[in-house]
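> call design_seq(struct)
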């Protein structure tokens, strides 16, 4: 688990969980600055035992282990800046090295990362950053909830670029990755719904993206044994009477599916990156600078992430 930005509410989030949860079937290892984490937890009155280790072999069950990463700070809370970039890079390097040496045995949870200061517009998001670092080619973003999950074909790009960045190949990759994930961890065949790009799946253009890309891809996937229906108009799809018929909704762009899923389930969902050499989970908590040290953050998504870890095989 990477703590993420040193000045974020993530210490509060994990404090609210670990102060009352001390039994773990899996080994929990935090990557981050030990001294700063302890100082922030003490300030918030969420003290729990931390076992400092040098490597994964020293990690113990039923206690939170931590590998210390050097970070110089003057105050326990401050503004996010590029001064933490080297620290964050080091955290990711350590965790990726651990995962590489323990293939198939690790799941990565990362705390909030500032896209503006850390990624510096070189990557669309941490999904793409990790894909580049691990040389993965077909990463997929899945916003997971037990009842309904969603996946956008395009992630953090401006709306004006969406139509140019959807393709038959991307849709196929997302669907196949997600089906493989559900099969591996839940032994389940997914019922997919796919949304159109245009309002009411119609366009004033002679040939729409629905006709040119989405409908032919649905037909191909059906021939390959995938349970998939669509394209559906996004404005009416998320009515409750429709949702019981599907497990995963594929949308064409970020807010088309993330807005309704967050409206339906609030923080009871997690961002899972599929298609990497490991499963990466990002709880739905941003750095949330306005709430630093105030002890008012909602920890639900992290709780949901830990619940998810307990249920997967």
């Amino acid at each position: 688990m990477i703590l993420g930005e040193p000045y974020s509410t993530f210490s509060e989030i994990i404090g609210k969980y670990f102060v009352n949860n001390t039994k773990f079937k899996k080994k929990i290892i935090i990557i981050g600055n030990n001294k700063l984490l302890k100082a922030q937890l003490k300030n918030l009155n969420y003290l729990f035992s931390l076992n400092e280790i040098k490597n994964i072999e020293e990690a113990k069950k039923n206690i939170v282990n931590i590998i210390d990463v050097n970070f110089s700070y003057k105050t326990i809370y401050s503004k996010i800046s590029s001064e933490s970039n080297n620290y964050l890079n080091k955290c990711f390097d350590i965790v990726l090295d651990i995962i590489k040496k323990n293939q198939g045995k690790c799941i990565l949870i990362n705390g909030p990362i500032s896209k503006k200061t850390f990624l510096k517009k070189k990557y669309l998001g941490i999904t793409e950053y990790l894909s580049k670092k691990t040389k993965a080619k077909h990463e997929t973003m899945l916003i997971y909830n037990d009842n309904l999950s969603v996946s956008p074909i395009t992630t953090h790009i401006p709306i004006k670029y969406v139509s140019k960045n959807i393709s038959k190949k991307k849709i196929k990759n997302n669907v196949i990755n997600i089906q493989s994930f559900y099969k591996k961890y839940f032994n389940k065949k997914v019922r997919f719904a796919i949304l159109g790009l245009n309002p009411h799946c119609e366009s004033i253009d002679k040939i729409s993206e629905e006709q040119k890309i989405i409908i032919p891809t649905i037909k191909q996937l059906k021939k390959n044994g995938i349970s998939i229906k669509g394209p559906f108009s996004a404005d009416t799809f998320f009515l409750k009477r429709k949702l019981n018929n599907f497990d995963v909704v594929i949308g064409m762009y970020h807010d088309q599916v993330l807005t309704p899923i967050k409206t339906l389930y609030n923080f009871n969902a997690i961002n899972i990156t599929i298609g990497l050499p490991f499963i990466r989970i990002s709880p739905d908590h941003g750095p949330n600078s306005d709430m630093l040290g105030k002890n008012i953050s909602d920890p639900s998504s992290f709780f949901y992430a830990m619940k998810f870890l307990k249920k997967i095989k």
